[in-house]
Amino acid sequence: MIRPMLALLLLCGPAAAAGTVSGPATVIDGDTIEVQGTRINLYGIDAPETAQRCETANGQEYRCGSEAAQALRARIGSGAVTCERREGGVPGRVTGICHVHGEDLSAWMVGQGLALANRQVTAPYIRQEGHAWATRRGIWAGTFEKPADWRQDRRRVEAAAGTSAAD
């Protein structure tokens, strides 16, 4: 009786692991968490990077990337997160729709103005982003550089610094 059960678990284990992962989560940044040793990018969104800075409506600079990560950490709290893997993310990375207490974390981040919707991936998040923009929530309350543009600028600066140092 035990051997057939073990065989069944071994056969089902990889399929279950490929589709859904659940458990306590560690927040890496505003759009990345780790659940049971698996790093997961939140599906359909792009949050400011941890080191990224934005400006308030008054022109005050603040760490919007750190703020996004902290808000996600607070939203998750000690709740168990369940993530269903999705295609369409960054190649080589695990992407998933993740829920805590039944709430889609990507939708919540975009709705709070803490992340941008990925326009190529999901229409519902675009509507929520529009609402966050209209109500000037989060990063929409001031000015910011799109996270993808910020990352590209950083890479360019780092590449230029590396070339200069080698000369």
Structural class: alpha+beta
Question: What separation lies between the terminal Cα atoms?
Answer: 70 Å
Q: Looking at the structure, what is the overall shape?
A: globular
What series of H and E elements makes up the topology?
Answer: HEEEEEEEHEEEHEHH
Count the helices. How many? 5
- Please give the radius of gyration in angstroms: 19 Å
How is the main sheet built? 7 strands, mixed
Overall number of strands: 11
* pLDDT < 50 runs, ≥5 residues: 1-17
Residues in helix, %: 40-55%
- Strand percentage lies at 15-25%
Residue-averaged pLDDT: 86
Overview features:
single chain, 167 residues, alpha+beta, seven-stranded mixed β-sheet, 24% strand, globular
Structural notes for this entry:
The structure is a single chain. The chain is α+β, with helices and mostly antiparallel strands. Helices cover 42% and strands 24% of the residues. The chain has five helices and eleven strands, in the order H-E-E-E-E-E-E-E-H-E-E-E-H-E-H-H. The protein has helices at residues 2-19, 64-76, 105-111, 123-134, 147-166; strands spanning 20-23, 25-29, 32-35, 38-42, 45-46, 54-55, 61-62, 81-85, 94-100, 103-104, 116-117. Strands 1, 2, 3, 4, 8, 9 and 10 form a seven-stranded mixed sheet that branches. The protein has a two-stranded antiparallel sheet with strand order 5-11. A hairpin with a 2-residue loop joins strand 3 (32-35) and strand 4 (38-42). Helix 3 (105-111) runs parallel beside helix 4 (123-134). The model is unreliable at 1-17 (pLDDT under 50).
